[in-house]
Amino acid sequence: MAAEAGKMEFGAKAHTALNDPKLRANFRRAMDGLMTKRAIQFADEAEWTSLRARGAAARANALAKLAELLEQLEANCLRNGIQVHWAETTQEANSIVLGILEAAGARTVIKGKSMVTEEMHLNAHLEKHGITPVESDLGEYIIQLAGEAPSHIVMPCIHKNKAEIAELFHDKIEGQAYTENVDELTAAARAALRGAFAGADAGISGVNFAVAETGTLVLIENEGNGRLSTTLPPLHIAVTGIEKVLEKLDDVPPLLSLLPRSATGQPITTYVNMISSPRKDGEKDGPKAVHLVLLDNGRSRVHGDTELRDTLRCIRCAACMNHCPVYTRVGGHTYTFTYPGPIGKLLTPQIEGLDCAGDQPHASTLCRACADVCPVQIPIPDLLVRLRTESVRPTSGQAVKGAGSSATAAETLGWKGWTLLYASPLVYRIGTRMLGWFGNLMPSSAPMLKQWTSVRTKPKFAAKSLHELAREKGYCDE
Amino acid sequence: MNWPARRDTAMNNPRERILSRLKAAPKAAAPLRPDWTPPTYDAAGRKAKFKAMLEASHADVHEVSPHDWPQRLKTILANKGVGNVVYAPATPAGRQLAESWAGSGPELVAYDRAVEEFKDVLVSKADAGLTTTKGGIAQTGSLVLWPTPDEPRLMSLLPPIHVALVEEASLTDSLAETIRAQGWAGAMPTNAVLVSGPSKTADIEQTLAYGVHGPKELIVLLIGSDSP
Amino acid sequence: MTTPPRPNSVYFFGTCLIDLFYPEAGLAGMELLKREGLKVVFPPKQTCCGQPARNNGYQDEARAVARLQLDAFPGDRPIVVPSGSCAGMMKTHYPEMFEGTPDHDRAVAFSKRVFELTEFLVDVLGVRLEDKGQPVTVTWHPSCHSQREAGVIEQPKALLRQLANVTLVENPREKECCGFGGAFAVRQAEISAAMVADKVASIEETGATQVVSGDCGCLMNITGAAEKSRKGFKGRHIAEFILERCHGR
């Protein structure tokens, strides 16, 4: 998968995005709206602080006991009749899903929104084997029609405006007239997908939370397609990363109070769907078979480092990217891989490798806007710095895939030189004196200075440094 | 070379490899869960909050009495031109409905067989579905649906109108309270759903639209005590 | 919040950017403290808080430079820093940088002595400012680190609001990062350019003739871009701005 995706392409893709005024306007408007809505929900500081602490503890607790809770989850699921499968890689997970479908003779599949299945490129795999899954979430349906990848983890087609969607529907949905009326577009999607729900042999979904205590899969959504794809077809396959476990049912309410409010500024999603078993004897509907696929894909390695483990607390609310000044300007596709924004800059290098995505942790000013709003207190900027460190100076034990891959002799030497200057008062005094005399002679086209001066005037070295002036004014005397 | 007879082949198994990696990880202390209290309300406040949250989500809430709700419902549905209602004949509410309407009003369609024989009705012919609820949560304006063999899951999902009966006495303040008070951890059903409004989306330019795949309308009949 | 006790003397940490590019801002900061009757000492061995190395992944190098600062500011005198970014670095990260080393206790003690300049002026000294300057309209730029790491949000504005002839206009986008980010301005130069362009535009929209900030990295970025695109406003470090107003310049 890594070979297909772009290596270290962040800057190049950002260039394209930054020069697309429509994309920039769409994202700016969308992110402003989402930030405002979230702020309204969390106007009470004290409530936010205590709720967030409770939510972070629920996730941190689960990660501290992850192996034990996964075993408990599995045991309870099995006891309830849900079959459980484990996959180390996305290839294994894809094979498992395909195997379940083929064993059931399933040819038509309806999908609820699931980022982990994007991570697996599941649709492509199924299509190669003659099964075309239909995306039922409106945003995912739209991008499926457009043949694109999602650009945001909660609102997949946030990069598209009404006119673009109207054009798409008119083009791809049989008999659909061009309309920009949102109600009409929604009705068109409902009609187009209704038959797909009814005729599907299988439904595939993600999982928001998997509760170990009861063997319950919690799925949240607004449209109803999640409930439909997990109730109507005779077979339901749920896929999740191994980190989505919660220990107790009691852990659900605080996270449920955090996720929708952080994501879209809603107090709660329209539907909170809790599934604990397939159709029981006497029941009239529901799938007769339910499967849960647990995907690792590098998560156990992330878990193995107690600092980086916090990455796995993520509940996929997207608040971080909604508040990120970088994401707002370049949009989700710039990040190439499944997860964009700040969380993507943490996950992607750890899953795909720093050799592949080592530029991503650097694509940040460390402004901390993300950390301020993360409902589970992931210290995103600190973890970005950790990944930057790993990419040039691997810690022992190779905590991160591709660690050390960005180290260059030139850069290492550069920082040694910097240390020489700044760790020795004498060298510093001499060096800064020289910069005061000659620094302004550096041409604007010099490397590094060139990028700066493309949009800014050259910074001017002062003739006398503060050290010199302070000395002259007597501030250096005790 | 002879491999030992009881060579552990479990390590060739993804489950074992994943679990052993997780178990080998350095231990971090499992944090204590800090105190967190969801809001509480008095009886009047609870009802008011429940109504307000549902109405803000585009649902209609009607206060009814235990006796008159079937007739009130008939009027509401007649005004909407509803031709039929899918209902659960084996529930007390279903029986009460059938008795009260006794042939007048929208056609009552019993969901009394497996979905395999009922799908077409649900998908394209049903105008409305009526369900009871296990309760209602004030903080978020949420109905607690607890499907049973008599009241299957799709009743509240496929028909474009969902009518839900909520007993005022069953209202609770928050989900946290509900889970504890109703002992969910002891016995989760096949499926439990919190419903907090009609189906909606904001995927198209963040503009709200209703009735995407689930019901376009949610009508809540809030059943008060018997006094006038 | 308990007010820290008022000391007789303070150390001043100039920061490497001020040292090289904005020494007047450093002098202004020291003079503001001196005017309040404090003895201000500028230890000559100081250089840089080490943040550039830390942020680029060179922890050993960052630690070596940070250690020099621990050496340069002995004792328990408060250390006043005219930069939210450097103050944030020293307050928040010095303890963890020295964890597991013999300097850890020293680093923890050091971090507790660090104050951002406006934080010190307002919270410790409770300064009263008299405005002798001409009417002017300004807007404030809070650096990301001062807002979110050093926790300094209201103090600078409180100071500006004390100045009777200064009209402080709020920038609705004030909290958004200006795009400097140290090496980011070079590594992701285009994104940085887009961010500073938006910041400059939002400042221009306020109608202010000056943007005042507590961080010279941001100032260099914003004023550099404003000058290049010939915008009408100037940029000033808050220490310089306040001192000028107090002197009627």
Which two chains form the greatest contact, residue counts included? A-B, 98 and 80 residues
CA radius of gyration of chain C is: 18 Å
Order the strands across the largest sheet of chain C as they lie in space.
Answer: 2-1-3-4
The description of the largest β-sheet of chain A is: 6 strands, parallel
- Overall mean pLDDT of chain C stands at 95
Describe this structure in words.
- The complex is a heterotrimer of chains A (478), B (228) and C (249).
- Chain A has helices at 10-18, 21-41, 45-64, 66-80, 90-103, 115-120, 122-128, 138-146, 162-172, 182-199, 225-231, 252-263, 299-303, 319-322, 325-330, 341-352, 354-357, 369-373, 380-392, 409-422, 425-438, 449-453, 466-472; strands at 82-87, 108-111, 132-135, 202-205, 209-211, 216-221, 235-241, 245-246, 271-275, 289-295.
- Chain A is α/β, with parallel strands linked by helices and 478 residues long.
- Chain A has three domains: 1-41 and 318-407, no CATH class; 42-300, Rossmann fold, CATH 3.40.50.10420; 410-472, no CATH class.
- The longest helix of chain A is centred in the N-terminal third of the chain and has 21 residues, at 21-41.
- Chain B has one domain: NagB/RpiA/CoA transferase-like (Rossmann fold, 3-Layer(aba) Sandwich).
- In chain B, strands 1-12-7-4-2-3 form a six-stranded parallel β-sheet.
- Chain B is built from six helices and twelve strands.
- Chain C has two domains: 9-124, no CATH class; 136-247, Rossmann fold.
- In chain C, 52% of the residues lie in helices and 12% in strands.
- Chain C is built from 13 helices and eight strands.
- Chain C has helices at residues 16-21, 23-35, 51-55, 59-72, 84-97, 104-113, 117-124, 144-148, 154-162, 184-187, 189-206, 216-228, 238-247, and strands spanning 9-12, 39-41, 79-81, 114-116, 136-141, 166-169, 210-213, 234-237.
- In chain C, strands 2-1-3-4 form a four-stranded parallel β-sheet, with helices on both faces. In chain C, strands 6-5-7-8 form a four-stranded parallel β-sheet, with helices on both faces.
- The model of chain C has no long low-confidence stretch (mean pLDDT 95).
- Chains A and B meet through helix 2, helix 3, helix 4, helix 8 and helix 10 of A and helix 1, helix 5, helix 6, strand 9 and strand 10 of B.
